[in-house]
């Protein structure tokens, strides 16, 4: 059979194939969206990109909380009773078709005034007439066309999204002043004695002075602040010689023009600040669409349904009190720890533990916050308020409040320590020498040394090398929080992996069948029955099984949390848990299994095994040579034998680890002097990720659900991990090389400075030249490095 | 000559005007999203195109 793909969402049309308007659709939802679009003249959507849509999900009752006035008030940016403005995060935004359809929302509903997409941040800002269309209706409309917004507790405080643009302003000020000062000092470069220029030189000079004022006192203020902080905590950081250089440049230039001694170095001064800020700008590159700082707030819903006197009322999550009765609908997260009262609880704790299989709970069992209900709605009683639940307690651990960068001495700072000492002693020695030989030149030489030795090239090499590598890594789907993570990554000697979700894949799993062989008729019945079920296990089993003849069922029943039942002609089949199908003897089974019985006779079971990521074995073998490896798993040791076969013999395998155990394990190794890289995925690894020197979160879908970490790695690039670490080490080498280059420039400059011949022209040539050549060198070197990565 | 004052004043005023324009642009959020506007610009053409396209499609299906 020819593989047809859905015209709307691009999925293969296997289960329900619908043909409408000469186009293929995989399900009714996709067809409906197409109908909506074609009725409203919006089929242009499909001209821009091929199959850009997403299958809409069932969302009955999920957004009821949006009718609550106090919640609307918190979510909207503007609300005067008639018009409301709201900014929604929509993870599905991925192509230009999405921008087009979302900015044409007013065609779908005339009560929407305007809508504007921010592609980088994946947000949509909508202005609408709140009397005609409520926020809830708006969200439902978006969900209906496949753009379901993601509303979490984090959106609760809207006013906070202020963008920090101060660096751009500073860069603008410095660039503006640099350009003008260069232009004003041009005459001085050539001929100062010429009559007209001599006449007006004071005008030019004082203009330059004016331009340099905002540069020194506004654009460069961060360097002064940082240098002051460094001195206060007795740390010789790179900003001390920089601040000293800027200060000396400014004071000497001002003195020179006041007493008409010379032209000053205003061009070098502004240029220096401009280049330094440019380096900072390059280093500050961030990925807008990723969040590295997620805590439980971005996972939690904003509101939950409370049952109060037999009525369902939506309440804010923060208002949950001990003893409240909550209704958790299908696919909703449990916001607080509690006791299950009634309903079929099938809780997916994958956000918390990384374990993908759902756990069944019975009435009276304890439920933990962070679990996701997957089989119908349940009722539970809250045991405590949100702040006191298990997850939030994990997040209140001290390590989450610690800034990793504080305790980390970067390469630049390590070098600058010796550098500062060296520069100051050279300056002193030279001054002493000239005091003896020619005292009139002494102060000149002292300032010249400080000016020329200003380590701008050194300060630039790390930001440009790391910033560029950050960009290259980003292209290769390895997203780092900031540039200093690369430096830390280069120092790693121990790597610790989480098991489930990290080295195993959540999407694919292997199955094995144990039991009596099924007849062709039974097999056909099995696949036909599975076809009707939406349970994740049924779906994955259905995808694995060969597609035999599909028979039409006479009868189909789904028992939530237990299994499914189907009949065709005279045959019946039961698929589900051991208890449900009537398996005779119970045994403790560590693996997830689906049991089958036909005509009430037990047949056998399909067992699901973890399937490990592609290239795992090879990756561990190459890593083994350079690093200490360990696997920490929250699971039982059912996979021990399998893992032993796959991995190098010395890999440590530790099972049954609670989140806190992982954290302690890493702390223990760090106390023994190890630099630990933690690779994990779930919220349960959050503590370990924060404790480690570098924490990498593996993610199958970059846009949703990764815990706070230093870097996010796309699961498809997992086997490249070793290459990324090697590249980081190479980057450090590049920085060291550029240090050597800038050192050579400094020696040349120092020759002019010590001999007392530093002309403004020489400084104006030498300083930018060294900066620019370092930038060019590091950019080319990192690009070559990046090309070797794939 | 005083003409140099005039020239300098004019050039600096122009430079300052550009600088103010830059600050305004940053403040308005122009640099916050550097992708969407570039795509949005192209949609204007698409909208005009839809109408003739639609009639052709209709004729075909009839």
UniProtKB/TrEMBL annotation, chain A:
Transmembrane domains' residue ranges = 167-186, 206-228, 235-251, 257-278, 419-436, 442-470, 734-754, 760-785
Question: Which keywords does this Swiss-Prot/TrEMBL entry list?
Answer: Cell membrane, Ion transport, Magnesium, Membrane, Metal-binding, Phosphoprotein, Translocase, Transmembrane, Transmembrane helix, Transport
Q: Family, per the entry?
A: Belongs to the cation transport ATPase (P-type) (TC 3.A.3) family. Type IB subfamily.
What InterPro entries does this protein map onto? ATPase-cat-bd, ATPase_P-typ_cyto_dom_N, ATPase_P-typ_P_site, ATPase_P-typ_TM_dom_sf, ATPase_P-typ_transduc_dom_A_sf, ATPase_P-type_domA, HAD-like_sf, HAD_sf
Tell me any Pfam family this protein matches: E1-E2_ATPase
Please give the coiled-coil regions recorded for this protein.
Answer: none
Q: Which organism is it from?
A: Mangrovimonas cancribranchiae
CC annotations in GO:
plasma membrane
Question: What residues does the HMA domain cover?
Answer: 84-150
Q: Membrane topology for this entry?
A: Multi-pass membrane protein
Which protein are we looking at?
A: Heavy metal translocating P-type ATPase metal-binding domain-containing protein
One GO MF term: ATP binding
Its domain of life reads: Bacteria
> What coarse category fits the chief subcellular location reported for this protein?
membrane
Keyword Cell membrane carried by entry: yes
Q: What compartments host this protein?
A: Cell membrane
Q: Name one GO biological process term.
A: copper ion homeostasis
From TrEMBL, chain B:
Is this entry keyworded Transmembrane helix? yes
Family annotation (InterPro entries) = Cyt_oxidase_maturation_cbb3
Keywords, sorted A to Z: Membrane, Transmembrane, Transmembrane helix
- Superkingdom, natural source: Bacteria
Record carries keyword NADP: no
Q: Name one Pfam family in it.
A: FixS
Which positions, given as ranges, span the membrane?
Answer: 6-23
Record NCBIfam families:
ccoS
The name this protein carries in UniProt is Cbb3-type cytochrome oxidase assembly protein CcoS
Starting at the broadest rank, the lineage of the source organism is: Bacteria, Pseudomonadati, Bacteroidota, Flavobacteriia, Flavobacteriales
């Amino acid at each position: 059979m020819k593989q047809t793909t859905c015209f709307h969402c691009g999925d293969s049309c296997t289960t329900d194939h619908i043909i409408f308007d000469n186009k293929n659709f995989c399900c009714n939802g996709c067809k409906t969206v197409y109908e909506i679009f074609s009725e409203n003249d919006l089929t242009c959507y499909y001209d821009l990109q091929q199959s850009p849509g997403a299958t809409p999900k069932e969302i009955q009752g999920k957004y009821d909380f949006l009718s609550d006035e106090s919640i609307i008030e918190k979510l909207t940016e503007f609300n005067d009773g008639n018009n409301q403005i709201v900014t929604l995060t929509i993870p599905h935004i991925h192509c230009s078709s999405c921008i087009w359809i979302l900015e044409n929302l007013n065609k779908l509903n005339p009560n929407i005034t305007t809508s504007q997409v921010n592609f980088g941040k994946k947000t949509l800002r909508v202005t609408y007439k709140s009397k005609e269309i409520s926020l809830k209706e708006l969200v439902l409309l978006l969900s209906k066309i496949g753009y379901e917004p993601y509303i979490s507790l984090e959106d609760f405080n809207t006013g906070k999204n202020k963008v920090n643009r101060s660096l751009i302003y500073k860069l603008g000020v410095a660039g503006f002043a640099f350009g003008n000062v260069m232009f004003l000092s041009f005459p001085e470069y050539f001929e100062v004695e010429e009559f007209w220029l001599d006449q007006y030189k004071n005008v030019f000079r004082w203009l330059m002075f004016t331009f340099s004022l905002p540069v020194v006192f506004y654009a460069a203020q961060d360097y002064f602040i940082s240098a002051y902080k460094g001195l206060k905590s007795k740390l010789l950081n790179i900003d001390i010689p920089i601040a000293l250089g800027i200060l000396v440049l400014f004071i000497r230039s001002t003195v020179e023009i006041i007493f008409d001694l010379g032209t000053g170095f205003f061009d070098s001064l502004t240029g220096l600040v401009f280049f330094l800020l440019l380096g900072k700008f390059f280093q500050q590159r961030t990925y807008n669409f990723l969040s590295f700082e997620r805590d439980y707030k971005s996972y939690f819903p904003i509101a939950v349904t409370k049952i109060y006197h037999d009525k369902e009322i939506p309440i804010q999550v923060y208002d949950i009190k001990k003893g409240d009765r909550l209704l958790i609908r299908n696919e909703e997260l449990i916001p607080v720890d509690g006791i299950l009262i009634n309903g079929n609880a099938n809780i997916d704790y994958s956000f918390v533990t990384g374990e993908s299989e759902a756990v069944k709970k019975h009435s009276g069992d304890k439920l933990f916050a962070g679990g996701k209900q997957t089989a119908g709605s349940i009722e539970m009683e809250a045991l405590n308020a949100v702040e006191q639940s298990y997850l939030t307690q994990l997040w209140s651990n001290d390590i989450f409040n610690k800034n990793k960068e504080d305790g980390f001495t970067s390469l630049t700072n390590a070098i600058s320590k010796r550098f500062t000492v060296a520069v100051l002693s050279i300056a002193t020695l030279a001054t002493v020498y000239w005091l003896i030989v020619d005292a009139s030149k002494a102060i000149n030489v002292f300032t010249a040394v400080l000016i020329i030795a200003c380590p701008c090239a050194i300060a630039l090499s790390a930001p440009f090398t790391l910033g560029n590598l950050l960009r290259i890594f980003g292209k290769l789907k390895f997203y780092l929080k900031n540039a200093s993570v690369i430096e830390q990554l280069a120092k790693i000697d121990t790597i610790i992996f989480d098991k489930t979700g990290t080295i195993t894949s959540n999407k694919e799993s292997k199955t094995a069948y144990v039991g009596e062989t099924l007849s062709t008729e039974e097999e056909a019945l099995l696949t036909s029955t599975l076809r009707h079920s939406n349970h994740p296990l049924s779906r994955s089993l259905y995808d694995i099984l060969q597609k035999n003849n599909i028979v039409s069922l006479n009868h189909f029943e789904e028992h939530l949390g237990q299994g499914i039942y189907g009949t065709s002609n005279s045959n019946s089949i039961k698929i589900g848990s051991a208890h449900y199908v009537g398996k005779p003897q119970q045994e403790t089974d560590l693996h997830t299994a689906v049991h089958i019985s036909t005509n009430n006779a037990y047949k056998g079971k399909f067992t699901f095994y973890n399937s490990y990521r592609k290239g795992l074995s090879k990756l561990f073998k190459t890593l083994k040579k350079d690093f200490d490896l360990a696997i920490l798993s929250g699971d039982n040791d059912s996979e021990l034998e399998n893992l032993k076969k796959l991995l190098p013999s010395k890999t440590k395998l530790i099972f049954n680890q609670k989140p806190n155990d992982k954290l302690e394990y890493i702390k223990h190794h760090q106390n023994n002097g190890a630099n630990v890289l933690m690779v994990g995925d779930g919220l349960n690894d959050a503590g370990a990720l924060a404790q480690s020197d570098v924490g990498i979160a593996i993610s199958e879908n970059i846009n949703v659900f990764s815990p706070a970490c230093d870097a996010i790695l796309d699961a498809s690039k997992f086997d490249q991990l070793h290459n990324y670490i090697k590249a980081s080490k190479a980057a450090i080498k590049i920085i060291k090389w550029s240090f050597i280059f800038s050192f050579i420039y400094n020696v040349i400059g120092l020759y002019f400075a010590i001999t007392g011949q530093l002309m403004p022209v020489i400084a104006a040539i030498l300083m930018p030249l060294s900066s620019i050549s370092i930038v060019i060198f590091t950019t080319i070197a990192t690009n070559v490095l990046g090309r070797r990565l794939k | 000559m005083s003409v140099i004052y005039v020239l300098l004043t004019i050039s600096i005023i122009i430079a300052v005007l550009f600088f103010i324009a830059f600050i305004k642009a940053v403040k308005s959020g122009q640099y916050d999203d550097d992708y969407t506007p570039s795509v949005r610009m192209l949609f204007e053409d698409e909208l005009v195109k839809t109408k003739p396209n639609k009639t052709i499609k209709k004729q075909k299906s009839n």
